[in-house]
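Lab meeting notes turned into a lecture example. A postdoc, R.K., suggested we walk through two folding results consecutively so the class can see how the record format repeats. The first protein's sequence and structure tokens come next.
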Amino acid sequence: MKILVTSASGANGDGYGQVLAFSIDGLPLGTFSDDPRITDPRGMRVSTDSQLLYINSGSDRILALDKSGTIQLDSGHIPGLNAGGGNLGPNGQYYVGLRTDKTVTAFPANLDSRAIPVLQHGVVPFPRGFAYADDGSLFLASGIGPQGNGENTILEFSPDGKLKSARHITDNAVSPLDLAIGPNGNILVSSEFPYGQDSSVTTVREYDRLNGELVRIFSPEKRVSFRHPRGLRFGPGGHLYCVAQDEVVVFDFYTGQFLDVVIHHPRLNGQAIEFFGD
């Protein structure tokens, strides 16, 4: 099993523009794949059968790689795609947040046909992370974009895509950057508030699934910089991992305790994190 991190380059920072691989203990293993179709990647997610890794490439295409890092599926170039986060959802489809179109769209698992939007165009000013609950409800983090536009909230949609709540959470100190659903059904977001400032407070925040009330705040020890937190993922032992500018931190989700910095890698500029391989 490897830890994989998408490292942003380009406008979002001096990262590597590749998917970087690490051992489960955090030792660097180099790039996961050298295929030139992978450029400045963002979201990624392991398929439902755990055999493929979907990657949102900055070259405006969706790719699926096997455990050796070889591309098995390619959506082909989709002009203007500008994909952000990625996640699994109903019917085993791969869902992608679109930053230009400001919505979420669904690709078939085999990437062999065009994507179908599941929400209306421009549903939020700038989509961040999203996830489907077990009952088919979709939670979408609406955050601040690179140009400073946007809002700080979480929207809830019914399984048929209808808006249930335009402001599901009650928290005036959050700027969401990714979203996940915990094993208890609650909503978690990585947050940098106020967004994009040197004085920003960076945390992972948990909200009650039903009423949106703030339940807990996860934060590492003061010795950890934890700047620009992004992707969230549950890993071995049910621990909660969060990737940031130069590191990956891990929490015990059940106790809320900070455990360790599992990866320290200068210029990581991590966007998404995943666990993949045998």
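The second example is placed directly after the first for contrast:
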Amino acid sequence: MNSFVKTFAAAALIAVSTFAMAADKTAPKTEKATVNLSTADFALEHYVAITSQGESAGVEQLFAEDFSQKIQASNAQSYSRVAVIKSLKKQKGEHLNCAVSTNIIEESADYMVAKVTMKFENFTKTDLLTLVREGNSWKVSKSINSYK
């Protein structure tokens, strides 16, 4: 288990440094950036980079066409793929001041259920994700958020 955590942390650092280097290169607006989503782990790492580190490359590529997000609170809210992508694009370049941890709950050849926890100073956001393989690419298909 300890070696798995170290391996995952090393992979996350490599991915973050790759994203940082890629962010320095500007592409024409007509070109869409593509990211490597060939494994569930890459897709999960990219989700963390988009939601907590302000990464914007490949945001449309990451989410499945039928993606939905639910926020569990006193007044539960639901958001569509289009609304979530629009919101994440507005956060481009914004690094959240939080500690992020990921935990894979269940995994098979075609899906993964993961828990992403973002611990802020005064609250914690927990995000349960369902990732699915669509062809040769992994995508986030569902997100359920809760706050404590």
